Amino acid sequence: MPHIQRPSSVDDRSVAIATFTIEASLVLLNILPLLTVLVVKKERRSTDELIAALSVNDILGVLLPLPARLTSFIRKEWKGGRIACQLYQLTVHWTQLNGMCLLTLICIDRFLSVRYSIERKTPYSNGKIRIIAILISFTTLFVSCLPLMGLAPIAFKSKLCRSWLIAEASDNVQRVFYAVFIAVASSNLLVAFACNAKTVKDVYSMKDSLTDQRQVAEFSLLIAVVTIVFYLAWFPVLVIIPMSQAGYQVGRVAIIYCLISPTLTGMTNPLLYAICSSTYRKCYTAILGKICKLITGCTPKSCRTEEELTATTASTTANSVTALLESRTANDCLLEGRLGIAAQYNILKGSKLSLLSSEEDERM
């Protein structure tokens, strides 16, 4: 990794290659929830839009620092100078903080959605959620700019761009960024877990009061699982940062974990959406089915969407009904023809009887 030390050894190259592999997987996987929310799903909830925003944030967290990171890996030393190093660190820390706050907003949104569903209140508009998400992005950007104001040590050398979170502070002023970072992360952790605990409790204790209880429970469980996995990955980071600033020796493996753990959570989120939510699973299947169709020209049965299967079933049923109606129509026509012939026969028979009776009357 170029921002730890010069990647001259085989181990450093292995770490860098593994990191790039994880980041490539993150970008590809996060395209699925984006397409799910923006293209496939017909009805978008506010939580869906926040999930899409989180996916965009995770993708930007990889793509924005990628040019500097890739160049440094190829050249085996930091390239770009001090300004490039500052921009690199700014984008990394901004997307990390923004992702954390967006996840907390998702937890709050889910909590409020369940409460409104129980109390039969009109839900708030998606526009308000978008405005809050934009405000969060600007706030986390401001926090990430604190080191540029002299509130954190910017350890830069000609061939090394050191992370702001592991650089040693020389005085209390340079520790402001760490304090704010830890405070933001800790408060997000507490709020996220409190909202999830209350949401899960409400869902399972007030089943009868919820409309569409199955979907509400499934989606609430999904957000709870995503939150737990996210903070399981982040918790060691929140412990290691204060330890390093307190003067404790932190191993190189722990530092590497601190740097790649946000990438790991960004990669696992789309997988958790598919595992925990049948809706997202069906949408993923629809997207993969269309990709299969573009590549091979045909859609495998396993990749057909629910709509396509429903349409096929409906078409088959319609054809069967049409054939049945046609056969019934033919039978009805045949029956009407037979009835008509019988009626004519009866008329002729009646006429003949009338004629015979009149002849008998004349004879008498």
Automatic annotation (TrEMBL):
UniProt cross-references to CDD domains, sorted A to Z: 7tm_classA_rhodopsin-like (cd00637)
Protein name: DgyrCDS10641
Superkingdom of source: Eukaryota
Organism whose genome encodes this protein: Dimorphilus gyrociliatus
Gene Ontology CC: plasma membrane
Keyword check for Flavoprotein: no
Keyword Transcription appears in the UniProt entry: no
Lineage, top ranks: Eukaryota, Metazoa, Spiralia, Lophotrochozoa, Annelida
TM segment ranges: 15-38, 50-68, 88-108, 129-156, 176-195, 216-241, 253-275
G-protein coupled receptors family 1 profile domain boundaries: 29-273
UniProt subcellular location: Cell membrane
GO MF, any single term: G protein-coupled receptor activity
Membrane topology note: Multi-pass membrane protein
Keywords linked to the UniProt accession: Cell membrane, G-protein coupled receptor, Glycoprotein, Membrane, Receptor, Transducer, Transmembrane, Transmembrane helix
